[in-house]
Amino acid sequence: MERKLVIAVRGDLKLSHGKLAAQVAHAAVSCALRSQKHDRRKFRDWFDEGQRKITVRVPDEAALHALQADARAAGLTTALVRDAGRTELVAGTVTCLGLGPAGEAELDSLTGELSLL
Amino acid sequence: MERKLVIAVRGDLKLSHGKLAAQVAHAAVSCALRSQKHDRRKFRDWFDEGQRKITVRVPDEAALHALQADARAAGLTTALVRDAGRTELVAGTVTCLGLGPAGEAELDSLTGELSLL
Question: I need a surface site. Which of A5, A19, A35, B75 has the fewest CB within 10 A?
């Protein structure tokens, strides 16, 4: 079973490509480092398989928080990203959520219905 | 002096937002993990300062390779990303390059003239 890391992004924010990419990267780095510390086996498998990442869209901030709560309840690593507010956004704006790395089936039960970004 | 991680992206590829973000995230995770292993002090400082990331644009693949050569000569951590080719791109397509983390001045001497993504 292949591992992946899913990054869910708010679809209701207007972000430049570069800003969006930096936020997604922030979520991915945070999830990778957390899982390296707390779930080393999953981290190692995911990394060795090529560190697969999928980006999906959620409608708004409330959906991100709900997704994080469900993911935590399922025992997954999560990382909610708040922008530092230096450029396009008000400081503290929640932009995206990293989930995993974890097995495909485990993540699909939480994010499988969401559209790709 | 604040640290940052720069991700340079090819401007000549047509990528969806989500695909682009995943490629940038790949570069960021690779640079973070490499620097954690080989340049722990810089990694730690960068992470503790909020893991700042900047995305910039280069015209084409040749520019990415040239930038990587210059960065290596300057002793920086680099990570060149090749897409796995499962979706939008031909397998092995070089998409972006992560540089650092390193100090602002050190990176600006290499990438300061490039446009933000």
Answer: B75
Structural domains counted in chain B: 1
Question: Which candidate, B99, B25, B86, places its Cα nearest to that of A6?
Answer: B25
pTM attached to this predicted model: 0.95
Q: Is A112 helix (H, G, I), strand (E, B) or coil?
A: coil
Q: What is the three-class DSSP state of B19?
A: helix
| Residue carrying the six token digits 């604040």 | B2
Q: How far is A110 from chain B (nearest CA, A)?
A: 19
Q: Provide φ and ψ at B14, rounded to 5°.
A: -100, 105
Does the distance separating the beta carbons of A20 and B25 come in below 8 Å? no
Closest Cα partner for B50 from A107, A116, A96, A25?
A: A25
Confirm or reject contact between A25 and chain B (CB < 8 A): yes
Residues 6+ apart with CB under 8 A from B104: B1, B2, B3, B4
Report the SS3 class of residue B23.
helix
- Domain CATH number, residue B74: 3.40.1490.10
Strands B3-10 and B53-58: parallel
Residue-wise pLDDT tens digits, B24-75: 999 999 999 999 999 999 999 999 999 999 999 999 999 999 999 999 999 9
Task: Report long-range pairs for A67-73 (Cβ below 8 Å, ≥24 apart).
Answer: A67/A8, A67/A97, A67/A99, A67/A110, A67/A111, A68/A97, A68/A99, A70/A110, A71/A97, A71/A99, A71/A110
Q: Which residues in chain B are contacts of A117 at CB distance < 8 A?
A: 16-18, 21
- Domain extent, residue A17, equals 3-116
